[in-house]
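Hey team,

Filing this mostly as a record. A colleague (T.K.) asked me to run one chain through the structure pipeline before their review meeting, and I want the input and output archived in the tracker in case anyone asks later how it was produced. No errors, nothing strange. Just documentation.

Input sequence:
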Amino acid sequence: MNYKSTKAGDKVFNTFNAIFMIVIVVVTLYPFLNILAISFNNASDTLKGGIYIWPREWTLFNFRSIFATGFLYHAFFISVLRTVISTVLNLFFTTMLAYTLSRKEYFLRKFITTVFVLTMYFSAGLIPSYFLIKNLGLMNHFIVYILPSMIGAFNLIVIRTYIKSLPDSMIEAAKIDGAGEFSIFIKIVFPLCKPVLAVVGLFVAVGAWNTWFDTFIYASSNQNLSTLQYELMKLLSTSMQTATSAVAQFGGKGALSGSTDSVTPQSIRAASTVVAALPILMIYPFLQKYFVVGLNVGSVKE
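Output structure:
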């Protein structure tokens, strides 16, 4: 009797849990699917309403319009270049520092770790940071995207915790064989950190790809350093006049020549959002397999 009651209770719980998770998935995915549908739908038809998760009149004119001027190609290149360089350098130098702070024989490890942890709770603020960047001569230079984010305190703690979970016997054996600290780091520690590096790398890449505020503060006067997200931000804050000019810059085609194709602020914003989100969505599936291992860093100790 108790067994039957327990089994019935499990079925009720599983059913409720499945329904609840389906609702969460629908609520989470619907905004993006709606944006995707609007981006591929005819702009004039979108104004009528009723577009949910499937386009009613398919078109690629919205995407052709946002790439018509050509500057988005350059902004896309700058965003990719910034993301790749920031991610690679951040992972390498953060892991190198994390390995140093994980060594028990390093007597300054606690002090340096405390200093980095304090930066997670206290910040000088925007104005001192701006004057620091200005005094360093980084304004309107590409390196302003790289240098300030070279090492992240949170990422440092995560990677250090993972390294401390590695068996000390491997490192000791390498030292007995005559390997130096840098050789141990490059040939042993760094390759073994692949799971946590995949997770942290995704966090760093998403942050570098999505940010636009540093471009606005430090490089807004240099169009050659404009990023895709910054251009998207400008598009999201514009009016119908900008959307109309986008059509005009496209060569007078579409709505200006009597065709049913046209652009509106809503269609331009939707297409820009899809273009900005697509690269990260393509990368995530390849790193997903490392998440279970990477997010459980430090859970197993020798």
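Quick notes for T.K.: The chain is about 70% helix and 0% strand. The two ends are 45 Å apart (CA to CA).
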